[in-house]
Every structure is written in structure tokens, then in C-alpha cells.
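Intended use. Records such as the Pyrimidine-nucleoside phosphorylase entry shown here are meant for training and evaluating sequence-to-structure methods. They are not intended to support clinical decisions.
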Amino acid sequence: MYDIIEKKRDGGELTREEIEFFIRGYVSGDIPDYQASALLMAIYFKGMTEEETATLTMCMANSGDTVDLSSIPGIKVDKHSTGGVGDKTTLVISPIVASLGVPVAKMSGRGLGHTGGTVDKMESIPGMQTFLDRERFFDIVRRVGVSVIGQSGNLVPADKKLYALRDVTATVDSIPLIASSIMSKKIAAGSDCILLDVKEGSGAFMKTVEDSIRLAEAMVSIGEHVGRRTVALITDMSRPLGNAIGNSLEICEVCDTLKGRGPADLTEICIELAANMLFLAGKGSIEQCKRMAEGQLRNGEAYARLKEMVAAQGGDIAVLDDNSKFRQAKVHHEVYARQDGWFYAMDTEKCGIASVELGAGREKKDDPIDYSAGIILKKKVGDRVQAGEPLAVFYTSDSSRCAQAERLFESAVTIRGEAPEQIPLIYARVTRDGVERY
Ligand code: URA
């Protein structure tokens, strides 16, 4: 291990054997944290070649259980988002693509900090089971075409250990380490193709378009290196996606969007993401796939597919058809604009933290969640506002949480006398052929 650290410290390229030695030894406990930390820091400063990054990813992907989806017919396409506020795209696009014959066997995560998680949103539906054994998961994908569950089993233990170490050694922020961490989990989850939604902006991990593109390029390169077709879209997270933030509130917005009456920004991103998944599955050009995806919203087939998936996973579909059947938050609290002007900018991360404060998310891994809590935005960046108009409605079961959430929300909003520049929703598409800017 000493020689491996020294080689990377001096800018050398690690061999497959050296990377395998490190991952195997670190997962088994033979290599101590202090040596692993030193190597991570050397990687942070010296970087890794595409070859090294792909090898690291595969060693991590193979460090625990892997999912073999080959018994499910068809080209399976997975999707990963780097996380954001109000990002409910998985629950919109998975039924769209499944209703067009592309199977989706997806493992999602829980929310942490300012970002939400698909599993929490699904669990706001009464009865919904998100932890299924492998056979039942596969059976639902075969019968319904789509199942979304939480990650179970011993998937990528190398990432769990390394991520915890990176978190306390200031080495999270390294493109080869982030790319290998994300891609190892996607590769272990077994799909043939991977669509990445790399978020950019105040609510995202990557704060600039150029950094997001560099991360996307690294992940696309890994996927293509190891035989998984991979495409990435760079999408905006300088404002929350849609109007709803919070678990059952977001499920209501998912239903609206699948019925063709969702917010314009969410609908546009979902159509683009779904079209790219369909494209990866060989269903046609991006333009053809977009039209197909739009058609599934109009004809109700995508919404019907969501209901089938929810029913198959034990969820109560009555709340989808009639959203008033969701358990309602006791407190509804309006937040008003203090001045006239334009909604100029939003600190999306702070807005996400305000929703956590209301009970919609968790600060620590095991904190409980209030599924009915959250925020409905009444105004968004680019809108004109008048003093006294509602900017948002807060939902919570605990009125004592409103004051702090309101302080945070107000500090997240900038209102000015001038209109902001129009920000695109999608900045770029990264494929093995290069970067296409929108
Ligand atoms: N998300 C991950 O899964 N891994 C990282 O390293 C960063 C974000």
C-alpha cells in the first residue's frame, strides 16, 4: 500500500492489480483508514486517467452483491439524478418509458439534507412497499414493466466505506472519486444503459455548468468503457423543479404531470429525460422519442402504468386518483412577498433546508419524516411579484416549525426591480460522441 500511495503521490498511473489490491484490502479491513485516506488525497490532487477511473469503478461495483437483470427481457435502462429539490422525475419518467415497452428495474435512495429521495416520496403513499425481495421485484418488472424500490442487500460496500472516509478527509470533491462512486452503484444495479441527470446550480452538488460537464464526461466515459451505453443531461437546479417540495405534495404533482397538467418546467425535463431513456433503448431518434413520451401523457397510459406499479407494490391507488385522500398537514401557512418587483433568484439549497425544517426531510440518516409536510411554491424565478402576494404555502404538522422555515425561505429568495436573465432548463447533453450544448 505504501508503494501505491507513493506512486499516485508522484503522479503515476495505477495498474489494475494495484487498484484491485487497494479495494479488496480496504473492504476486508486489511488496509487501515490512514493509508486509504492518503491515497484518496493523492487521487484528489493528481487525478486519475479514464482507464484508472473505469478500473476503480468496476472494482468497487464488484466489491459486494450485484443485480443480474438478464432474466428480464428487453433493454433495461436506469436513470440517476445527482440530487436536487423537488426532483420527482423518476416517478414520472419510469412509467412513461415502461408504457412504451422499456423495462425499468430501479433502485432509488432516501433523502438526506436539502435533497429529497424517491423512496421517501413513494412511502408517503399508504401501504407502499419499497423494500421487496429480488424475486418479487423482478416479477413486478416482468408483469408491469416497472418497479422502483430502495437499495437493499450488500451493494457496493466499497463505496459505503470510501464515501464515509471521503466525507471526513475533505476528498469528496474529486471528479474521479465522485464519478466512480456514482457509476459503481449504477453498474452493480444491473441495467444495460444508464441515463444521468447531472444537476447544476444553487441546489446542486456541482455549482457550475463547466464542472457538471466535466463530471458528466467522466461518468459517460466510465459507462462506455465497461460496455454500458451512457448519456448525461446537464439540467438546471438553480430553482426547485416543479412547484411542490415534500413527499406527498410531490406525489400529487407526479400525478398531475402524468395526467398532462403538470408544471411546465417539470414536464419539459421529464419529456427530455424519458426521450433519452427511450433513445438508449433503441426506440428511435430523440425527436421521435419525445413525441412518443408526450403521447403517453396525453393518452393516460403513463399514469395508468404508475397506478399499476403502486398497486403491485401494495400502495393505495385511491390517493393517486383523489389526492385529498392523502393525510393532510394540520398547518397551512402562507409566506408573502415583502416588496414589489421580480422574483430574481432562489437559493435552492436553502429552500430545501426550509422544507426539512417543516418536517419533510431529515438532517440525520435516521430522523423521522412528516410525509404531509413541505412547500408549494406560488411564485418562481422570473415571475413578477407584488408586496403582500403569497410566494409559497408551507405545510406542516407542527406550527412551531414555521418561523425558522420562514426565515430560511425568505433568505433564499431575491426580489429585485429588474427581471432576471432567462435560465435554460437543460444546458447540455453529453454522450460518447461529445458535448452538445443547448
Ligand atoms: N453521490 C454519490 O453517490 N457519490 C459521490 O461521491 C457524490 C455524490
